């Protein structure tokens, strides 16, 4: 059971694909790098950074290992997990395990539920245990 829950809206500010083979397709080892501004109740409360390394890509299915860090006024929350391409309508939600943090979140555990609501926008529900 979550001891604390934080509701955020993530709005993308930049997105980059690092195509190591320079072949205009996603291959194992390629990376997707995303930054967002984080909102709570309509006010900016922080930012995040997400780096996903492509593990497999075939038949339109992409699986990635993602690490994300949320930067909030009370400290940072780090997370990671295996994600199927959230850009596809069939995969619009996923969870990342909270692996630690700094400041008020230095002993953080739990998970972050991410739900893609539109291109470049997602709701983040942080469940701290």
Topology of helices and strands:
Layout: E1 4-18, E2 31-40, E3 43-58, E4 61-72, E5 75-84, E6 93-101, E7 110-118, E8 121-128
Antiparallel strand pairs: 1-2, 1-8, 2-3, 3-4, 4-5, 5-6, 6-7, 7-8
What does this structure look like?
By secondary structure, this protein is mainly beta. The protein has one domain: Allene oxide cyclase-like (AOC barrel-like), CATH 2.40.480. Helices cover 0% and strands 69% of the residues. It has no helices and 8 strands. An 8-stranded antiparallel beta barrel has the order 1-2-3-4-5-6-7-8. The radius of gyration is 15 Å and the shape is globular. The mean pLDDT is 91.
Helix proportion of residues, in percent? under 10%
Summarize the main sheet: 8 strands, antiparallel, barrel
Number of domains: 1
Give the number of helices.
0
What is the second-level CATH architecture? Beta Barrel
List keywords for this structure.
129 residues, AOC barrel-like, eight-stranded antiparallel β-barrel, globular
In short:
The chain is 0% helix and 69% strand.
